[in-house]
Amino acid sequence: MNAIISVSDKTRIDLLANSLSNQQANIISTGGTYQNLKDFGFNPIQVSDFTAFPEILGGRVKTLHPNIHAGILAKREDESQMNTIRELNIETIDFVIVNLYPFIETVKKDDVTLETALENIDIGGPTLLRAAAKNFPNVVVIVDPSDYNWISERIDSGGNFSIEERKKLARKAFQHVAVYDTAISNWLNDESILSPSEISIGLNKIENLRYGENPHQTGAVYSNLLGTGGIVNSRQVHGMPMSYTNYLDADAAWTTVNSFDQNACVIVKHTNPCGIALDLKQSEAFKKAFDGDSVSAYGGIVGFNNIVELDTVNAMKGILFDIIVAPSFSDEAMEVLQKRKRTRILISEKSQGINSEINVRTVSGGYLVQSNNELIEDPSLWTIVSKRKPTEKEFKDLTFAWKCLKHIKSNSIVLAKDDSLTGMGAGQPNRVVSIHLALRIAGVKSLGSCLASDAFMPFADNIEMAHEGGVKAIIQPGGSIRDEDVINSVNEFDMAMLFTGTRHFTH
């Protein structure tokens, strides 16, 4: 038997090498792997000796040789092909054990140069893997160190590999190369991720989940190849394992709270924020967010955009939360929080890097891909369409409400006052119902509040209901054919209204 071993990740490669050696297999190797195997006491054959051709171009060309690839690709059941390689004194290769240069780890470094990145693009490795995987009925291709144990045991026992096992290993090899090529393509793309006519998104599995959204569904969580931060890459320092819905809700809390520059607290239930508040004092921001909808907040997810202090944790005493996520926690706060058996504590960073700026959703037959809704708007460009101008306080509340609503499912209505969400209506088929729900949640807190609508208000009845609830000012995109009727209604009730010209649907 002949086996090629050329690995960037040398984890436990001695295990396979030992099993192959015990079966009298010739081990052919290159560069660092060759030296690594020598250090373990094995006696590998240099590729240049096996091919009778030197490594050239500074090692760029090593395994790209007919003696290697014909030995891998020859179909053992094809007598003509076997006669050809015998005539040329080419030996068949039975095992290909390869994983690739660390391109992804290299380009994630802040100071990486183009030259360094290009030198870490593997050419020979993917070619070996593709050749071996193409001929998997005859060649065992191994790319994943987690397979070393069972493969080593099989080699030790002298057993054969079934066609199903070979096929599974081949799929892994092709997938490994596909993800590798995806990372390179994405890194080289200087345009919008949506510019190319073909796109691929590479993912690495972090873990399997107990189940998906419901117990009868399977689930897993993956991270972007070249991205950093975000909920997927957060560090869980306390609590039970994360579930599918935990990830969804935690992401909603984390992305929402990080949309604010000021000290903020966000409480989420079923991906919708039910409490959002700003305050110079973090504990007060929490109290205001909790008061936004204390009923829904119970058992929810809490997000902070600054280090969580002890005062804040004390303010949360006696209230059950499934998850608390923040960039960090003080030692005193963590000591108290770790007494909460059911609460998961996550430390996270803002999401950055390639693919972090897009949103992908599956639909039947394919995918919808769009840029994230992170438009930075200039409030000075908004248009006052009412006779009465909003007061300075109303303008501040309108701006806050407008920032909140794009994180809430459409049709969305937000009521806000004093840098706090006081009520919201989400995911309703018509805007009147959303206004009704927002007013019902707010109760007396709707008096003197400001209202934001994610899309235009189509009828004057929206204004009438808001007025009856005590709303004093409204912000909306505008653009309805009945804008004039809506504006007339606003003026009739001496309310103020702004048009932004921007819609913020979130479906």
Detailed description of the structure:
It is a single chain. The model has no long low-confidence stretch (mean pLDDT 90). The protein is 36% helix and 20% strand. The protein is elongated. The protein folds into three domains: 187 residues, 3-Layer(aba) Sandwich (Rossmann fold), CATH 3.40.50.1380; 145 residues, AICAR transformylase, duplication domain (Cytidine Deaminase, domain 2), CATH 3.40.140.20; 121 residues, AICAR transformylase, duplication domain (Cytidine Deaminase, domain 2), CATH 3.40.140. Strands 8-13-12-11-9-10 form a six-stranded mixed β-sheet, with helices on both faces. The protein is α/β, with parallel strands linked by helices and 507 residues long. It is built from 19 helices and 21 strands. The longest helix is centred in the middle third of the chain and has 26 residues.
Short description:
With 507 residues, the protein is α/β, with parallel strands linked by helices. It has 19 helices and 21 strands. The strands form 5 sheets. It has a 6-stranded mixed β-sheet, with helices on both faces. A 6-stranded mixed β-sheet has the order 16-21-20-19-17-18. A 5-stranded parallel β-sheet has the order 3-2-1-4-5, with helices on both faces.
